[in-house]
Amino acid sequence: MEGRGEETGRGSLSPRSLALRLGATYGAFFVALGIFQPYLPLWLQARGLGPEAIGLVLAVPMLSRLAATPLLGLLSDRLGRPRALLTLLGMATVAAMALLAFTSSLPAILLILGVMSAVWFPGFSLLDSYTSRLARAGRAEYGRARQWGSASFLAANLAGGVIIGALGADSVVLLMIAGHVTYVLATFALPELPRAEPKPSPLVGRRARLGFLAGIVAAGLVQASHAVLYLFATVHWRSEGISLSVVGVLWAVGVAAEMVLFRFGRPLLGRVGPYGMIAIGGAGAVLRFAVMASDPPLAVLLPLQLLHALTFAATYLAMVDLVARGVSEHRSGTGQTTAAWTSSLMSSAANVAAGPLWAAFGPLAYLAGCALGLAGVGAALAAARLQPHSSGSGGETTAPS
Predict the structure, then answer these.
(1) What averages of pLDDT result for each successive group of 10 residues across the chain (401 residues)?
(2) What 3-state DSSP class applies to 189?
(3) Helix (H, G, I), strand (E, B) or coil at 279
(4) Which of 121, 200, 207, 209 is spaced 20 to 30 A from 250 at the CA atom?
(5) What is 292-324 written as a DSSP string?
(6) pTM (two decimals)
(7) Which residues, including other chains, have CB under 8 Å from residue 299's CB and lie 6 or more apart?
(8) Three-class secondary structure of residue 395 per DSSP
């Protein structure tokens, strides 16, 4: 059967062995990311950059990601060797990180970080494409592999703070390098997939294609609803007198909730289908950010963070499943990277709007997240109506128990 072959000279892997390797690969990928996201500003500051320069530098990864992600998706499908491309991109990322470690001037940092981001961040969507192909063949389950990415991201956040506090800001990029070297090694343990045979698109007719696109937009809207939360929650919580350790617990609760959803969300996805799952995520965003707009006390914030399982994880899981259902296997890389590009573009626009909204309205800016979540619900329901023959069960990115 197409997509099932794993002949790479090392024999066929057992489902358990393959699951362990996939989980290790996702976990390793997120180690460097868990250092990069919260701690790179410290490294930039240690290089003598001021707030304006740091803001400029941190805008580069998003721009590079938007430019490179769809192109690398096309390249992956054209080459027909997705695992090999994951390894090559990982090695290029390590090389760029090594150059960054010895860089101090702003122009050089901008250039190297741009190249690094272009080969690093698209790898996540390509790994999703790789895993969804295995899941389509009944060899893996996406959510169970992806949960280890969330776990290692959280572990890197926590351990990174301790290590960087002891070794200093210069260790930030060194820790990123160590994490991504581990990822490269993990990719070598994955089997290469056979070149997928070209087949007609599963989407038949204009209504089906419009429904598919509407579903991608719906997922992007729900993901974009987090903009105010991601940019201003920590700052606001600190201004309310919440200690950094408790702030860390709040974020950890959200990550733990998304891990649970990734691990156990397959039955729900099988019952309601990807459009229903996105609608549930959007409804969760409406509730979550409506309460956040009221500036709730800590006793409410803690359980409220559990909704991250719906607003982020359920929506993301549904988007990966939607692409696996709606795109032929030989275009899996293009489909997953294009969906990720769409979501990133919408989140970028929401990030730009979040600053002025927060400056003008404070916590009431969370109501913009409600609006985006509600729009996501509407788009998901409209998408479902455009797919009258779609089944709510048996998603292609799930494997039999």
Answers:
(1) 40 83 95 88 86 79 87 90 96 97 92 94 92 87 90 88 87 95 96 86 83 94 93 83 82 91 91 95 97 95 95 94 88 88 89 88 95 97 79 40 29
(2) coil
(3) helix
(4) 121
(5) HTT---HHHHHHHGGGHIIIIIIHHHHHHHHHH
(6) 0.81
(7) none
(8) coil
Where are the extended beta strands (E) located within 277-397?
none
Contacts of 16 (CB under 8 A, 6+ apart): none
Q: Decide if 37 contacts 230 (C-beta within 8 A).
A: no
Length of the chain counted residue by residue: 401
Taking the C-alpha atoms of residue 252 and residue 371, their distance in angstroms, rounded to an integer, is 26
The position carrying tokens 């109506």 is: 385
Q: Are 274 and 322 in contact (CB under 8 A)?
A: yes
What the block records as the tokens of 29 is 């990928």
DSSP per position, 125-138: HHHHHHHHHHHHTT
Rounded Cα distance, 220 and 245, in Å: 31
Q: What share of the chain is helix, strand, coil (3-state, %, to 5)?
A: 80, 0, 20
The torsion region of residue 219 among left (phi > 0), alpha (psi -120 to 50) and beta comes to alpha
Helix (H) or strand (E) run with residue 148 in it: helix 142-167
* 209: its two tokens: 């294609």
